[in-house]
Amino acid sequence: MKITKLITASAIIFLSQTSYASNNEEGEHLFKTYCDACHGMTGGMDMRKRIAPPIAAVRMHYIGHYQDKTSFINAITGWVDKQDPNKSLMRGAIRRFNIMPPIAIKKEDAIKIASYIYEGNLQQPAGMEEHVQQQHKKGGMKFSQ
Ligand code: HEC
Fold it and tell me: Ligand 1: which of 38, 51, 84 to mutate, judged by most atoms within 8 Å of the beta carbon?
């Protein structure tokens, strides 16, 4: 009897952990499906080879303005829903790459992606931080407006 209880308890703990992990995994999977082709690692930090900023750079700009998770998620999903240049935090990126095209995606999926980006466990191309610092010195990037 005791053993059965122990097994049941372990199974419950195991299941609750897996469902927790799969929340982030789902966000990551959705990111790969909808965003990674443009915001992924392809092209590294070579701006001639990139078509959009790496997502870690996008996060860096957004976390500077929207520290708490709810406003961060609102800002990212708001942008994905409608690319309003007046709300851009990356005007230099718009000049360089042109404005992001509209993405057909369900709101609930965009929320999961935004939450995954907020968690911050993202790959970033080598040299990204140096690039950001350089642009910052040139005055091309403003973290607080
Ligand atoms: C077809 C390419 C493409 C795809 C797919 C794409 N983006 Fe973008 N995105 C861009 C480009 C180019 C920029 C830089 C120019 C700009 O800011 O509009 C950008 C910028 C952004 C910005 C910063 C906007 C700003 O100016 O403040 C956010 C946030 C963003 N993308 C989120 C996402 C998310 C989340 C996804 C997936 C749901 C996604 N993007 C998919 C091309 C893309």
Answer: 38
In the chain, the amino acid numbered 21 is: A
Which residue's C-alpha comes closest to atom 6 of ligand 1? 35
Percent of the chain with pLDDT over 70: 83
Which of 110 and 5 is assigned the larger pLDDT? Answer: 110
pTM: 0.85
Q: What is the pLDDT of residue 144?
A: 42
Res 138: pLDDT: 76
The domain made up of 2-138 is a member of CATH 1.10.760:
yes
Contacts of 62 (CB under 8 A, 6+ apart): 72, 75, 76, 89, 117
Burial class (CB in 10 A: 0-12, 13-18, 19+), 131: middle
Residue owning tokens 């952990």: 17
Other CB atoms within 10 A of residue 24 CB: 14
